[in-house]
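testing teh design pipeline on a random one, pls ignore if ur not involved
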């Protein structure tokens, strides 16, 4: 029986300060401010701006509320004085099922030569029969607010909404941005699953679509047919580095997308390691500099399963989501080099019901060879890739549960200009940390 700790468990990392912020999907640091996008919006939580100029005494300077009870805004990025947050439908899994209701109903009517029973329809939609009333209501009501919002945050205490750019479907999930463009992962009419839509945001009041990129098979309205089940292959998000986008495409692995001509993105490289790895690719990024003449890139998968007593036997013997390392010197011949995994024995909460244990996300910039990765109930892990074939853990930090939670769920991370670590918990908690390698 595992015994939960009453204080953080750490090696080479110390906590500087803590705030009991509501659970977050993303934390992004720009200058002396951290921007936290919240997952739970039962109380209208949207985006919190925290002044971290004094890391020992962080101060909340603004709390933006979500004004739509059907949406959440759990991702945020800032360049200069422009902030973008996502707008996505609550209950995204059920929202996607609701979108599929007429299609599945028509398929069953054709194959059965009659109307399906509720049990047959639920099976076709992969939901419980008891979920059908909610699905029918969601389909009837529809969802039209998906997209992203752009704010002027020159005054961090009082952001000003510049525009709400609508996209489609269940809306926007994760994204990247720079001073000129926003690289949005979103549902769009006529496509199965999220695709990349690039917007010109040089006039932030009037985002203008520049181009789209998708996996062959996603554009069903254009006559394409997916070769995978449901939305297994789709864009999670893509990061721009120079003239390339590094795209994580869920159970489709990853793609390198050439955006030398921003109006015509094209796939330059691809690699898929699913199967045998069961958890989907969440993020894909390159290291800034070659190592021993090789260009190195890293993926992090997302642990999908929440632990429960009922799932314990199903989980037994199955590897958890992890970090994988690749040689990407030749985009036409990407080679796997290694993986980094964390044992369940390394966290007292690895099998606590109601949470997840496994990888989720890392800090999306690598200066040197260190990867800072969140591991849900495994906390934060710092990995040195000086030898890409043998990742070495050089530090970890597992926060204690706070605010009545049963376990920690370290969800997202971002480093500031001083090298300090901002760590966001999925359920509750925001820590500022310092790493010192001994």
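output:
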């Amino acid at each position: 029986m595992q015994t939960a700790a009453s204080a953080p468990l750490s090696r080479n990392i110390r906590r500087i300060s803590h705030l009991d912020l509501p659970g977050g999907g993303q934390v992004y640091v720009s200058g002396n401010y951290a921007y936290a996008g919240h997952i739970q919006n039962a109380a209208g939580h949207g985006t919190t701006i925290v002044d971290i100029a004094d890391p020992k005494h962080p101060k909340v300077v603004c709390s933006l509320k979500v004004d739509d009870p059907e949406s959440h805004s759990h991702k945020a990025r800032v360049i200069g004085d422009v902030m973008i947050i996502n707008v996505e439908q609550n209950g995204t899994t059920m929202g996607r099922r609701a979108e599929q209701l007429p299609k599945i109903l028509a398929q069953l009517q054709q194959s059965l030569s009659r109307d399906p029973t509720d049990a047959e329809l639920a099976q076709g939609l992969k939901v419980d029969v008891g979920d059908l009333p909610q699905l029918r209501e969601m389909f009837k009501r529809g969802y039209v607010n998906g997209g992203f919002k752009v704010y002027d945050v020159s005054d961090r205490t009082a952001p000003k909404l510049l525009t709400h750019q609508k996209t489609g479907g269940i809306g926007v999930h994760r994204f990247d941005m720079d001073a000129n463009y926003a690289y949005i992962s979103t549902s769009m009419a006529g496509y199965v699953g999220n695709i990349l839509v690039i917007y010109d945001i040089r006039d932030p009041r009037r985002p203008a679509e520049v181009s789209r990129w998708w996996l062959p098979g996603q554009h069903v309205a254009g006559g394409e047919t997916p070769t995978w089940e449901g939305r297994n292959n789709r864009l999670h998000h893509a990061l721009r580095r120079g003239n390339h986008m590094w795209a994580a495409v869920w159970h489709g692995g990853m793609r390198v997308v050439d955006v030398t001509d921003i109006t015509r993105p094209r796939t330059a490289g691809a690699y898929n390691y699913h199967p045998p790895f069961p958890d989907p690719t969440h993020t894909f990024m390159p290291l800034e500099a070659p190592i021993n003449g090789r260009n190195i890139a890293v993926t992090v998968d997302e642990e999908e399963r929440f632990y429960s007593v009922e799932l314990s036997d199903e989980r037994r013997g199955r590897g958890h989501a992890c970090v994988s390392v690749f040689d990407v010197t030749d985009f036409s011949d990407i080679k796997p080099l290694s993986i980094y995994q964390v044992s369940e024995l390394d966290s007292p909460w690895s099998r606590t019901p109601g949470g997840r244990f496994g990888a989720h996300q890392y800090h999306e910039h690598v200066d040197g060879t260190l990867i800072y990765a969140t591991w849900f109930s495994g906390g934060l892990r710092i990995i040195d890739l000086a030898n890409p074939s043998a990742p070495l853990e050089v530090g970890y930090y597992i926060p204690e549960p706070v605010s009545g939670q049963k376990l920690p769920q370290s969800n997202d991370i971002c480093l500031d200009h001083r090298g300090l670590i901002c760590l966001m918990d999925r359920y509750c908690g925001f820590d500022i940390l310092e790493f010192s390698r001994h």
